[in-house]
Amino acid sequence: MGVREEQKEKRREEILTAGLNLFIRKGYAATKISDIAERVGMSVGLLFHYFESKEKLYEALIALGISGPMSVIAPTDMEPLEFFERTAEQIFHYIQTDPFVAQMFVLMSQAFYNEAVPPSIKELLMGFDIYTPTTLLIQKGQADGTIREGDPYALAIAYWCAIQGIAEQLALNPDVPCPESDWIVDMIRRKA
Are 61 and 100 in contact (CB under 8 A)? Predict the structure, then answer.
């Protein structure tokens, strides 16, 4: 990648970061493209060279918010409990070291409930399902005796909602202590 392409990519990332921060603080409807342009120190016209509209910028953020978790739950040869331990550990590491990651959890939560988001975003979100593949891993762990008994879907919800809540708390209050990832895994771990 040449210097010019690197600069353009860096600028694009700055726009995404500014947009993310404004969207989670002000909401989709209240955030203006001029707010984002001002935050990154560029004209609205120049910003449109990176994203043709506020909707396209928001859509790019939502696509990132979907691709991250979906790549985490891609088919794996890991033992189920090891998967849950590593996943929680990695997510907690990222949300503590990169505010962008923690803020993405807030954005995704807001997007699901926000009636003001465009239909294209709602359509993207309809394909976002981390619970079904997680449920299959939980069932496998229940069969091998490493994951507690109980409704596998409910256990998947407990695991992901705990992570979601912690990420949101750290995004909005970065100075609070982050729980240990083992505490989350212990919710689904079979007790000896």
Answer: no
Closest CA to 151 of 169, 137, 167, 138: 138
Number of H helices, E strands in the chain: 10, 0
Q: Which of these, 65, 72, 63, lies nearest to 101 by C-alpha position?
A: 65
pLDDT at residue 78 tops 90? no
pLDDT tens digits along 121-135: 999 898 888 999 999
pLDDT value at residue 114: 87
The confidence score (pLDDT) of residue 77 equals 82
The interaxial angle of helices 99-113 and 152-172, nearest 10 deg, is 120
The closest of 80, 132, 90, 99 to 25, measured between CA atoms, is 99
- 111 CB neighbour count, 10 Å cutoff: 22
Distance (Å, whole) CA 22 – CA 80: 37
Predicted confidence (pLDDT) per residue in 172-187, tens digit:
898 999 999 999 999 9
CA distance 36 to 20: 9
Q: Which two tokens stand for residue 52?
A: 């043709």
pTM: 0.88
Dig out the tokens for 73 from the structure. 């739950």
